[in-house]
Fold this sequence. Notes:
By secondary structure, chain A is an alpha/beta fold. Helix content of chain A is 54%, strand content 8%.
Amino acid sequence: MSTPRTPAGFPTQLLSFGEELRAESVAVGTSELLDAFAALEQVSWERREDVREALAATLAKSPEDRRVFELVFERFFFRAAEEQAIRKEVTESEGETPPETAAEIDLEQLRERIAAAVRQGDEGALRDLARLAIAAFGRRGEGSGVIGVDVQRIRRALGLRSEPSSRPQPDGIARGDTEGIPREALRAFETHLRRELERDQIERTRRLPAARPLNELDRALPSGPLQDLAAVHRVVAQLKRRLATQGHEQRGRKRHAHVDFRRTMRASLQTGGVPVVLKYRPHRPRRPEIYVLCDVSTSVTSASVFFLSVLHALHDAFRKLRSWVFIERVSEVTDVFERERSFSAVAEAIGRDAGVADVSGYTDYGRVWTEFLAQAEDDLHPRATVIVLGDARTNGRDPKDEVFAQIAQRAGRTYWLNPEPRLYWNYGDSVIAAYQRHCEVFECWTTRQLEDFVKTLSRVTTTG
Amino acid sequence: MAASPDSVVELAEGLRSVGYLAGESTALVSFLAIKLAKPVLVEGPAGVGKTELAKALSRHLGRSLVRLQCYEGLDEAKALYEWNYRKQLLRIQTEASGAGWEAVQDDIFSEDFLLARPLMTAIASPEPVVLLIDEVDKTDQEFEAMLLELLSEFQISIPELGRIEARTQPVVLLTSNNTRELTEALKRRCLYLWLDYPQLEHELEIVRLHAPELSETVARKLVEVVHMVRELDLKKPPSIAESIDWARALLLLGAEDIDAETFRQTMSIIVKHRADLDVVAERVGLRLGGPAEAMGVSST
């Protein structure tokens, strides 16, 4: 190895990496950084994985920290490398593109090679293929310039579909086809696409886009369904307070309501029948009646914990609230929430006796609407609010939006909270557009978005 | 037997030769632990091979394994050392008439009267050892605090004797099932390794290593089913050890395929809770049944 053990300037880089981890609230102490240096002495610099693991072992000391570490690591070193490239005016020359030029590759072939690379987990090949895909896609002239959109368009153009990860694989070996690309693998490929697109963009504009902090979705959701419960709970607790105080503000501002005629007359007796002092009828904020339907199927696994805790918080905040959970069938869980105070007990009780999945565990929205309408038809009235928490992925079944329309018609307001980014709506088996005609749809997968929604909700209900 | 591996690859190979297929990060962190002489805190769900890693390391490095199983209420007397008071009493009785107080006192607080417990054994051993502190999350915080001195300085202070320093550098592994958040102070002194359930291919390799007679197809299907089961929300998801047990059971039964029937009969090997059994039977059993019947239909 002719290069020095520690590349020049690396200590400062590592220190600022530590800073960045601290900024994302990973507790990195000086002793940890010293350990990191010592550990890096022992591993070879050629292998990215080794460096990453060595740093992770010394800096990130819990599963949550580890997750943040991975994200920060990717971001930090990608940016650091690009920054160097800009400073030294290095661009990736044409000669560096993989042997075959992009022109002679058709999408079909590309798709098969990507699927193969995904199966083998070959990172290097995936990166090359991502660049080929971008080149091939660029020729078709469909690029939108927005990286997130382009990633999805490329993916769609290639016909890469993710399969539900819990999909039965009865005969995986025999079927070894390109159909089922596991969700995580596809996500990894998308990361490559995103990275390469970003690189292109940086090369074009010759500067780095502003760094943005990790959002809560990146941090919390994809890895494990139950991992960041605490974080969700913290925010939901804030939400509860906000919900509780918001009503009071409204009450204070809208003092002049209706004159209470009877009390005014009675008070006027003191002044000989002349109504000097007007008595007002106290303003009571109208308590909204809320019906919540929550999807708990596998396609929203990561979001359903979030949703359940939202439901839990709503139950504390609104007295007239009834809730249902559904997968293939719908089941009312209002009394579960009223009986159990702790969240985990609620979640367990729902898992145990809700009995919402029949066989497949796939959502059947059509059936859910029909059943819900049958159960709640008489109770729905114009002052009621219906909130649906779900991704509107019907797994190819009949969405029965006409039944949903009936529900929306009977209820005063209908809202839909979709845990998927807007980009994925109406893509694949998502039929949110069919329902969108009958209700207001909100994108909701972070607590921020939830707060925004809640603001809309309480504003509308107290004034209307 | 290798005294000290020179590279990560070498260590990974070594571990494989003693029957432990280490993931990439596992090998790397173990390597760092040996090189930097730092303890490793291994966390992860039950049954992913945390304890096994320590055993494999001891086999590969040719060191003896000193194991301290932690439990609630574990104290210094059980973990570090204890004075062998019976022996001390005997000593006093035999000397009772003759010797003066000074002589006896000097005498009975010497290493001869010390009962070494695991931590002490590990420190005082003339040969380097692998020290496994198993399930450290089961102990209470006081005990954790006591470990700090040991883990950072590799020494133990005994009031009557003074400090006992490690003569050789032990490899220390602490395992935790994450039932309790460990203190920052402890974490700071350790390297951190998170062991998770292995990827499908990796687990397949492990199963095939431990049950080589099982045919490739059955093994693959077995691992797929295990992964499927792990995805359900169970009280206790099946561990790697249980997939190996299952593989061996299938071998004994001479099963050639895992269909709904075989699965129903043998699933108690991987699922060990009443409620879990129901869930698994319902979800996985059906999936297995479906295609098997479909194939039956197509073949007739």
